[in-house]
Amino acid sequence: MQRVVVTGGTGFIGSWLIRELTDRDIEVVALVRAPGTFDKMTGENIQLLHSVVYDSAEYEALKQSNKKIDVFYHLAWAGVSSELKNECDIQLDNIRFSLQMLDYAKEINAERFIGIGTVAEYAFCESIMDVNARQTPSDMYGAAKTAAHYMLETRARMLQMPFNWTVIPSTFGEGRKDNNIITYTITSLLRGRKPSYGSLQQMWDFLYVREVVRALYMIGDKGVASKCYGIGSGVFKPLKEYIMIIRDMVNPKLELGIGDIPAYSEKVFSSCVSIYDLTKDTGFVPQISFEEGISKTIQYWSAKIKNG
Known about the structure:
It is a single chain. The chain is α/β, with parallel strands linked by helices and 308 residues long. The chain has helices at residues 12-23, 57-61, 88-107, 140-159, 181-190, 209-222, 239-250, 276-282, 290-306; strands at residues 3-7, 27-32, 49-53, 71-74, 113-118, 128-129, 163-168, 170-172, 203-204, 206-208, 228-230, 237-238, 272-273. A seven-stranded parallel sheet has the order 3-2-1-4-5-7-11, with helices on both faces. Strands 6-13 form a two-stranded parallel sheet. It has a two-stranded parallel sheet with strand order 8-10. The relative contact order is 0.13. The mean pLDDT is 92.
């Protein structure tokens, strides 16, 4: 790969993907809503990052450019927070925008389009997820991602655009600031507070963000067109074990409120993704353990809390 387009580059995974690509000497065109979006972004090869404002003259000019675009990564998606996941209008707009970006990718002659899915598409899975099986979303966010997957796949076939859908796992790392279970646990413990949970019996898969974006790079570079790829660590543990690892790294004497919150279902659902096809087709093998990644994440939050 020499040149790619990225949407959603200001988000958690998107910003790390830009770092991954530019570190590999790949030119990145980031589509943004306002100029100056990446003015404070740093990196060894940050000069390879160029931002283009949607619907601007430069945005239109890309359609006439003769420069080759190897991959179009579409990560932009609004309404991911728990407060907005069930806002139907926001989720419907995401589907429309995704289709708009696919058409734009065709117009600028991108050679591959990669859409970003989520384990939320398979919320009621009770074992290892087969990303080619029937989805079972539990909220409008997961349902919209499922709809976007099939609409993009169909539209890509009509446009004869090589297409991949990727199922992203529970991702953690420096810079993720929403109140997910990892952030909640780390920040609570660092502040000396007892975090509260359900039974935490679910089998889970967490993957450090640098591994997620490396997998996305490898799919863009070596993925087989029309395939759906699950991204994960390949290591599954009860959610309770991950939380106890975090607690022990922060302070093994701190109390955890496991079981404080009643279960919302009698079934124990899992969030574990098979990475068989990803490894077979691209050679992706996770290199950074949960412990190593979580240590870096704890250091990040420790510094943030200390500095206010």
